[in-house]
Write a structure and sequence with these properties.
It contains one helix and six strands; from the N terminus they run H-E-E-E-E-E-E. By secondary structure, it is α+β, with helices and mostly antiparallel strands. The protein has two domains: 31 residues, no CATH class; 55 residues, no CATH class. A hairpin with a 4-residue loop joins strand 3 and strand 4. The N and C termini lie far apart (35 Å).
Length: 89
């Protein structure tokens, strides 16, 4: 865990669960949250969360994070009821 925190500090990350980082140059870099699961081999390809119907899009893998393992795998307004992200009431 210490190595991850050091790497985050070097990257300019402000939070371990954010998907935005700000470099010293003011550039916003999108990345996957650390808590995010690895997409299943049958997961749909994606470019953004909007392509994933409630699930997050993994920018690292280019696929929707499916099945979900935690709320971190779900888009805003959704929560994980494995294997699917369900809309919040």
């Amino acid at each position: 865990m210490r190595c991850v925190l050091i790497a985050l500090a070097l990257l300019g990350c402000s939070s371990a669960t954010t998907n935005e980082t700000h470099s010293d140059a003011g550039v916003v870099v999108l990345q996957d949250p650390i808590c995010q699961s690895i997409p299943d081999e049958l997961a749909s390809p994606c470019e953004s969360d909007e392509d994933c119907v409630g699930h997050r899009c993994s920018r690292t893998y280019g696929h929707c994070v499916w099945p979900c393992a935690s709320d971190c795998d779900c888009a805003q307004g959704y929560h994980c009821e494995a294997p699917a992200c369900i809309g919040d009431p």
